[in-house]
Amino acid sequence: MKKRLRTILLFFAQFIVVIFGPLAYLLTSYFPHVLFTYQEAVDGVKDCTSYALKDNTWERLTGEWSFYYNRWIVTDNDEGPRDGVIDPMSSWAGYSLKDGTVLPREGYASYKLDVVGAPSGMPLVFDYLAMDGAYNLYLDGSLVVASGVPTKSISTTKKASFFTYQRNDIVPEDGSFTLVCELAANDHGGSFSPPCIVAKYLPGTVEDFLTKLFPFISGTLIFALAASSLTLFLSQGKKSRDRSLVSTLFVLFFYFFFSLDTLNALRYFRVPTIWRAFQACTIIGEILLSVLLFVCLHKRGYWSLGNQKRDRITVVVLGALFVGLGFGAYFSYGFPFERYFFYIMTFLLLPLLYFSCASVIKKKKESFLFTAVLSLLMDIFISEGLPYSNYRTTVTYLISSFLCLFIALLFFLIFWQESAAIRSGEEERQKLKEDFASAKQEALRGQIKPHFVFNCLTAIEDSYHRDRASGDKAITMFARHLRTDVDSMDIDLVPFNQELDAILNYVNLENLRLEKKFQVLFDVEYQDFLIPPLSLQPLVENAIKYSKTNEKEDGYIQIRSFQTDDGHVEIDVEDNGVGFDPSEIFSSSKGLANVKERMALLLKATLMIESHPNEGTICRLVFLPKMPESK
After folding, report:
1. Could you tell me which of 559, 552, 576, 553 has the C-alpha nearest to residue 507?
2. pLDDT over 50 (residue 153)
3. Is residue 291 scored above 80 in pLDDT?
């Protein structure tokens, strides 16, 4: 109960980390006049008299612009009344005109903003970015920015991903000027990005360097980390390879390559880009990253529904759900509910965040790193989704660059630690293999004991003296025992029923020379597993040597096998003989020590011995079963 409570508390703490940045970002959008001296445009007018516009690095001209549907008021000298006011960051689809007409998504438009109270003589550098369209931006009737070839028909409009024309200006003496944006015909119902006035942005500044070059530096480093992880991956043994982390790193690079940071950096260098193609690739990257994270954490035991079939179905269903939400996000471009698809995709990762928090509480290896990765990645998804909505006063440049690079470093650190563990495991397995070879040779040297051979030959001779048939039977059993010993030199594991046959043959050989016979009972509930050859013989031999059950009327040696509730196999070699002190047995019995070492090396089994004087002995082997290969 305490662990669950701590998990819930940690989960909520991580959730706050996830939403802190976006939440602060939304607050700046809802209450800019409280947090800053920023004032949005109201009723088509932006009043700058109450704050210093020149003190801002750049100003995003959000708020209510005068709106003219299917009208270009500068090109056509249209002096008619406006059709209403609208935020350029919103779609006009569904907007109602004064006459009650509800606008479709298709069309072209003009946006007009009157700015008053601006500092006289302040340089005006405009950064207008229509995410998917062509446009002209006019300052007091003069063209200052153009992108593409805007027309009034979707089929003839030519889009461009950068400015095809740009001219800087200054604020007039009276501090007032009028901006008009004529947006080309489009089928998504708007611009979704108002112009920005850049007051302090100069080439060679820190802002210039970060905006232009840092996304390329970050992308290069992410690719280098992905390539390094691939090199480590290929150097591992095939059985140890886990593709999920390497794949995730390369998908992270793919996602970042099509992020807003990269898109804006490419536009600065006038590299042709298509916004909708970038948006589609970003969605694909988010889908792949989300599904791969589910796979990564499942492979590491962070979550499971009980069996592999259910887990695979869960991953497939989640993948289909992510794909469906991705389609919804892409094809709802321009609708007000578009952003909800992105938010749902992001919050579908919350169960993974909970499982990773639970693993942190359980002190599972690397769980803290995975928790950090999930938190930061969800933060990126939300930040990348924000520019598609109208909840912002600024854009989220460079968030992806910094966070994706940091996430790539965390992923590489996880992969490096796992690779180091694999290398260490391989070295340990090699050492175990060498130790096993040595132990095996030692065991084989001790299997055929001279006194046992002598006793068997004497018993065979006595059998022949009684009658030929008994002698033939005795020598057949002895030959079978020798064959089992020799064959075991080249075989590591044999079926359990074969081992039982060898035990029965061994006991029959021992009984040949004894007047009072040993009685061996078999209680076999489960036998579909493998075991090292002749590994139980020393346990039975120990019982024959010390238990003296053949001197009791009800004496017995019992071999029992069954499967426990947790899937382990348990083998008990039990007798009701005289018993002994278990603390002294391993130092005096090489056979038992050999069994313990061989079973630990081959099956990671544990050998436990319970014995009390005059109460008998139980030798208990417990291990996970190795199944015979199906023919």
Report:
1. 559
2. yes
3. yes
Fold designation for 2-26+204-425 = Rhopdopsin 7-helix transmembrane proteins (1.20.1070)
C-alpha 201/C-alpha 198 separation (Å) is 6
Alpha-carbon distance of 411 to 253, in angstroms, equals: 12
Task: Name the token pair of 42.
Answer: 């109201």
Q: Give the HSE-up count for residue 573: Cα atoms under 13 Å, Cβ half-sphere.
A: 20
Strand partners, 137: 145, 181
pLDDT, tens only, 126-141: 765 555 678 999 999 9
Q: Would you state the structure tokens that stand for residue 98, as one six-digit string? A: 């004064």
> ∠ CA(104), CA(110), CA(116), 5° rounding?
135
**What is the Cα–Cα distance from 190 to 105, expressed in whole angstroms?**
8
Residues constituting the chain: 631
The residues, ordered by sequence, that sit 6+ positions from 363 with a Cβ below 8 Å of its Cβ are none
pTM of the model: 0.59
* pLDDT band at 629; cut points 50, 70, 90: low
Which of 281, 213, 209, 220 lies closest to 408 in space, CA to CA? 220
Where does CATH 3.30.565.10 sit in the chain? 448-623
Task: Classify the phi-psi angles of 236: left when phi > 0, otherwise alpha if psi is within -120 to 50, otherwise beta.
Answer: beta
Residues of the chain with CATH 2.60.120.260: 37-198
Which of the two residues, 31 and 535, has the higher pLDDT score?
A: 535
pLDDT of residue 518: 86
* Segment 176-196 mean pLDDT: 87
Task: Identify the CATH class of 448-623.
Answer: alpha beta
| CA distance linking residue 339 with residue 355, whole number of Å | 26
Q: Is 80 exceeded by the pLDDT of residue 38?
A: no
Angle at 583 between CA 579 and CA 589, to 5 degrees: 75
Per-residue pLDDT reduced to its tens digit, 211-232 = 778 889 999 999 999 999 888 8
What are phi and psi for residue 47, nearest 5 degrees?
-100, 115
Residue 232's contacts (CB-CB under 8 Å, 6 or more residues apart) are 415, 416, 419
Contact 371, 360 (CB under 8 A): yes
Question: Per mean pLDDT, which of 4-13, 500-509, 591-600 is the most reliable?
Answer: 500-509
Chosen CATH of 37-198 out of 2.60.120.260, 2.40.10.240, 1.25.40.10, 1.20.140.10: 2.60.120.260
* Confidence band, pLDDT 50/70/90 cuts, at residue 392: very low
Contact 614, 579 (CB under 8 A): yes
Question: At residue 148, what is the residue type?
Answer: G
